[in-house]
Design goal:
It comes from Myxococcus xanthus (strain DK1622). About 40% of the residues lie in helices and about 20% in strands. The chain has about 425 residues and is of the alpha+beta class. It starts with a helix and ends with a helix.
């Protein structure tokens, strides 16, 4: 007679298996397999329904156990049960959703990958939560470490998911703490000492706040006299103006506001995954979508080529493909060398259906300092390709207007305005000899 230990041993050697295959491998009847599976409890995950049902061994994560409840916060701020996450013995997880639809993921589900501590705001997570016993550097974390962080301290993450009852309790018990822009310098100093805040990505110094009845991400550059600090202050001005130009082109972009307080330069960017005081919207980065469904980043892929693959898989609309190609082209023509897959995001419009979110992080990063050094780089605008031919001329016109506006912006130094004027002239020359 087969035992529970034998069942778990057989399941542990396979990614997943059907009940009939278990009966064959254990040399027992199907009713015996059913009894063994029932006695296994949460140590075995049932995946799917009917004849297609498969089984996998789960793994226990201290202190979470073999399963973690998930929740979604709607746009009114009300939380709803969304399903159960089952970590699997041989890696990845199974999501059993409340609507009965389940899905297996090779690693963390895409929304959890985006929610995990990262970038400037994530680096201080371990020191703020020593009680969790996580490795000091988030770059050393496993997926289990990420799940522990999300399930126990994940009440204010990107998107609308909350993982774990403890994090939901923190969300329900956390009152909003409105601040004013006069408090921004103190929040910036606190951020530099503790890197406190949510888990929003990116290495630019920042903090999150609720100001003037809006949830905002506030980037900042220090108020010292160094050349690098001055350059970052100028780049924040450039970022706000770039988002304005994108909106003028008819493409949604994050609402932003440049503020100067006590010598600090702040760029206040309204969060588009938040609605009102407590509401939230589902949001996924291109990086998370690509990691789970495409796997093209790191192979010379661009926003433009990724959009093509997304359209082929019917994940996004043709209009969003055009907008992505425009943003990619505009970014290249404005010196934005930081067009990685984390800097493009999508709202969820159903299972594997995504809608392009407002643009963000658009600025001429070619001018970014390296540490404390200012590096002179040559701007080389590229001509259209077969994939960007239909959007290049319009993107170029707006890029030209952008460089011209920067050249005339009094908040920028004479040196920086000179760089912008040369970039404008290089682009103008390319446009003159490009027959589009």
């Amino acid at each position: 007679m087969a035992t529970l230990e034998q069942l778990l041993a057989v399941l542990g050697r396979q990614v997943e298996v059907k009940g009939s295959e278990l009966a064959t491998q254990l040399r027992v009847s199907r009713p015996t397999v059913s009894r063994l599976l029932a006695s296994a409890g949460p140590s075995v995950c049932r995946m799917g329904q009917g004849p297609a049902t498969r089984y996998a061994r789960t793994r226990s994560i201290a202190p979470l156990g073999e399963q973690v409840r998930m929740y979604r916060v709607d746009e009114t701020g009300r939380p709803h049960e969304a399903g159960v996450l089952h970590p699997l013995w041989n890696g990845g997880c199974w999501i059993a959703r409340e609507d009965g639809v389940g899905e297996r993921f090779a690693g963390l589900p895409p929304f959890a990958a985006d929610m995990s501590p990262q970038g400037y705001l994530g680096r201080g997570f371990t020191s703020r939560h020593l009680e969790l016993g996580l490795p000091p550097r988030i770059t050393d974390w496993t997926e289990d470490h990420q799940l522990i962080a999300l399930a126990l301290r994940g009440d204010d993450c990107v998107g609308n998911h909350i993982i774990g009852a403890a994090s939901l309790d923190r969300f329900l018990a956390s009152p909003l703490r409105p601040v004013t822009e006069a408090q921004y310098p103190e929040l910036a100093r606190s951020s530099m000492s503790s890197e406190a805040g949510s888990f929003a990505g990116g290495d630019q110094p920042k903090f999150t706040a609720y100001a003037e009845r809006r949830h905002v991400l506030v980037k900042f550059a220090a108020n010292d006299d160094g050349a690098a600090a001055q350059r970052w202050r100028e780049l924040l001005v450039c970022e706000g103006l770039a988002l304005e130009v994108v909106r003028n082109a008819g493409i949604p972009a994050a609402a932003s506001r440049s503020i100067r307080v006590e010598g600090y330069q702040f760029l206040e960017v309204e969060r588009f995954d938040r609605v009102g005081e407590r509401g939230r919207k589902a949001l996924l980065s291109l990086k998370a979508i690509d990691n789970e469904y495409l796997g093209h980043e790191g192979k010379g892929s661009t926003w433009t080529s990724a959009a093509r693959y997304l359209l082929q898989s019917q994940y996004i609309s043709e209009e969003d493909v055009r907008r992505i190609r425009w943003l990619d082209t505009f970014g290249q023509l404005t010196g934005n060398t930081d067009r990685h897959f984390g800097n493009l995001s999508f709202f969820e419009d159903g299972p594997k259906r995504f809608r392009l979110a407002p643009a963000y992080d658009m600025l001429p990063m070619m001018f970014a300092p390296v540490g404390t050094s200012i590096i002179d780089r040559t701007f080389e605008p590229r001509p259209p390709t077969s994939e960007t031919l239909d959007v290049w001329a319009d993107a170029a016109q707006h890029a030209l207007a952008y460089w011209s506006r920067l050249e005339q912006t009094p908040e920028l130094s004479d040196t920086f305005r000179g760089h912008c004027a040369r970039c404008r002239d290089s682009l103008a020359a390319l446009m003159q000899r490009t027959p589009v």
